[in-house]
Design goal:
Blueprint lengths: L5 H11 L24 E6 L5 E4 L5 E2 L4 H13 L1 H7 L29 H8 L7 H16 L5 E2 L1 H10 L1 H12 L7 H12 L1 E3 L1 H12 L14 H14 L5 H7 L4 E3 L4 E6 L3 E6 L10 H14 L5
Antiparallel strand pairs: 1-2, 1-8, 3-5, 4-5, 6-7, 7-8
Helix pairs in contact: 1-12, 2-3, 2-10, 4-7, 5-8, 6-8
The structure holds glutamine.
């Protein structure tokens, strides 16, 4: 593994920012439609070292699907893997993250994995709490520990905007409720889910979360256990097989690290035993992944020999 420093981040971000022209900012969540494609940032949080970053590193974005890794970790900690995997499977799909198609094949209505919307909704449905506020609280509690920042919270406007327009996610929920995969109030579940997706932070905070996974669940500075190693391992494995939606295979070949993206344009990547990286660039390709983010990770992975394969 080759050392990475700030000049690498500056060089490569400069080199790849032009790719934003090839992408499109998401607009199915109205509050995200005004994100600016030229906003770019990257941060790297080494284990036992000093954070480096460049670009608009203070800019706060919502983590969207990256929250699926956190909610999975919460559910695994609360219920154990047997209970979680009785409700959601462990297999990748070649469908888009919002797809309803696979709920009708093979095991009826059991979502294929926790990184697609159906699976993430089933996982969030398992999180303990007497009401939506307590459930969101459980997710925020872990996010704050991982980011080492008590101030992290969700963006109320983005959450509300998605909640009001989540027709497809509502459909997935009704389908799964019919088959007993989820229980309780669908509106309450969507409230929790849209709030977890709207958790807002900058690349520096997200890189620290990735660094905890790179350190097998331990704090990258103090080495204290924050997530059980088995839970970290399961989350990272899903990041490899399903983290970049139906582009996970291509990403595994071209980059080769566990990673998770969100439609806001953020990606977090895990460089085992080395550190965590977070990239932000809201212009997305047709699979819903940041074009600048993917290019930057491809360049860095090749130069620094990051691939785990
Ligand atoms: N891919 C994503 O980031 C999707 C998250 C988004 N909140 C949704 O459910 O549609």
């Amino acid at each position: 593994m080759i050392k990475i420093d700030q000049s690498d981040l500056i060089k490569w971000l400069e080199h790849v920012r032009i790719y934003a022209n090839n992408g499109k900012v998401v607009d199915y969540i109205p509050a995200l439609a005004n994100q600016q494609p030229e906003t770019n940032a990257v941060a790297y949080y080494p284990i036992g070292g000093e954070l480096i970053f460049t670009g608009q590193a203070e800019y706060k974005f919502t983590i969207q699907s990256i929250s699926k890794v956190i909610s999975l970790a919460v559910a695994l900690i609360q219920h154990g893997d047997q209970a979680v995997f009785s409700r959601v499977d462990k297999e990748p799909t070649s469908d888009p993250f919002y797809s309803v198609a696979k709920l009708e094949v093979e095991k009826p209505a059991k979502p294929f994995n926790p990184m697609i919307n159906a699976g993430a909704l089933a996982v969030t449905n398992m999180i303990r709490g007497r009401n939506s506020e307590e459930m969101v609280g459980e997710i925020l509690k872990l996010v704050r520990v991982l980011a080492n920042d008590e101030q992290v919270t969700y963006d109320q406007d983005v959450a509300q905007s998605e909640y009001e327009t989540s027709f497809l996610n509502r459909a997935l929920c009704y389908f799964m409720k019919q088959h007993g995969v989820i229980t309780g109030s669908i509106e309450e579940l969507l409230e929790v889910y849209t709030k977890q997706c709207a958790i807002s932070m900058n690349v520096k905070q997200l890189a620290r979360i990735a660094a905890v996974f790179a350190n097998d669940g331990r704090d990258p500075d103090s080495n204290e256990e924050l997530i059980p190693p088995d839970v970290a391992r399961i989350c990272k494995t899903f990041m490899v097989t399903c983290g970049m939606y139906n582009e996970s295979g291509t990403f595994a070949i071209n980059v080769g690290i566990p990673a998770k993206s969100g439609v806001s344009g953020a990606i977090m990547g895990v460089i085992k035993r080395c550190g965590g990286i977070a990239v932000f660039g809201p212009a997305l390709n047709e699979k819903g992944n940041s074009v600048v983010g993917i290019k930057l990770l491809e360049k860095l992975a090749a130069e620094k020999m990051w691939s785990i394969f």
